[in-house]
Amino acid sequence: LEDHDTQKELNTILEQMVKQEFKDANKVFYVVNEQFTWELSRMIHSARDYHVLWVHDFRGLNSDKKRAPDSVSYNLILKDYYGAWIDRVKDYPNTRKLPVFMIFLDQHYFEANISKFWMKLLMDPLEHKLKLPSGHETWEREIVQAQKDLNAAIGASEALQTDVKRYGRKWLKNRIKVHVSITNPSDLSFRSMRTLRGAPFIPDNLIRDHRKISFYDITELDPGKGEAIYAGLGVGEYYVGPRWEDRSMMVKGPGVLGVKESARKLLLSQGFKPHQIPTPLRPLPMPADYEQKVEKLRESGWTAWGMQVHNDTGFGQKDTTLVKAVLYTMMPKGSYLVTTDQVWSSPTWAGMLVGAALRGCSVFAISPSLLNAPVDVSAAMSRSNEIFRRLIYVENLMEDELQEVGGMLKLGIYNVDVDVQDVVGRGELLAQNLADNP
Fold this sequence. Notes:
Blueprint: H1 7-18, E1 23-32, H2 36-46, E2 50-55, H3 71-95, E3 100-106, H4 107-112, H5 116-123, H6 137-156, H7 158-167, H8 169-175, E4 178-183, E5 213-216, E6 227-230, E7 247-252, H9 258-269, H10 290-299, E8 304-306, H11 319-330, E9 336-339, H12 347-358, E10 362-368, H13 378-397, H14 399-405, E11 408-414, H15 423-436
Helix pairs in contact: 1-11, 2-3, 3-6, 11-12
């Protein structure tokens, strides 16, 4: 225990495990569920060099019974992507550049939630003719108007028109678009949509990228430029109801530079050649004054330490899981561990939590009710129920041992019927809970 009972010692163990170092001079913001969509919108508008949306789910159809086109995805395209393009075109005479927009979208949900018609529009925002189901004619007209506004802004820019004459219309269409990469395509030797036409098969589920990251303008040239958000949500109506309750971290500083390398690694794993990596994601040499810039960030109050770790898909390296396991099994006595995850419930993690409680940690495991479960299918709910029954049994069985070491193991149920987007309703609920449980 004496080898990892301080923060410094525990940090050293983590650094050795994942073969990287903690970095300081970062600024960290805590982002709750209802803020994610707004922060994503702000990032798209803030990008001047590039923006990457690396997400597992960009909903084509929503999750209700009628499966209509998703309104959150639609508004992100209409108000944010088109809005950002128009603003950057207007700035072009002064900046002489247009940001590169990219989306990395895992094929599993791309297929399952029918994202293709949105992606086609994003890849050709100037000319693509969007066709939506009956009842959504207003959305179609609004997209047509956005296309007219964007083309009008291009036509009104003398500087941009000069460059179009020089480089051609193809150059323009390559600059004003979202470069969409559908990653981890299913292996046709496994079950897929093509196995049996008309059968309810979806692409194989073994190789899936579940990362949810948005970042823009991060560069080796300036440690204070750009920003990244590490999230737990996708884009769609499904993530703004009472069911999906999640948290995100927004980070600025030298600690997020590695996300560029992770993005390159993803594209290389999908068959890109080094010379095909988009220019904004290619590595740049550190400037001579980089450390001086980092010191200025420290002096301005950017004091957070951290490292970013990723779980690669398939049989790739699972650094996030490794760090989580180290923390569960090595957090010293007196530490608090709060776990609210239903999706990844397993005896392995439950055993680590029990071990932490028996070392003197205070462990709080929370399971969602059916109303709030991100995965409400019977298999996931059954496993969650099974794990929590066992933890309750352990809590009662080892009551004396827990008391002797000063540990705590407590279980709870999360049951909220107020949408995460209802900020006022959430405030009223919190006030009532505090009044009932002073």
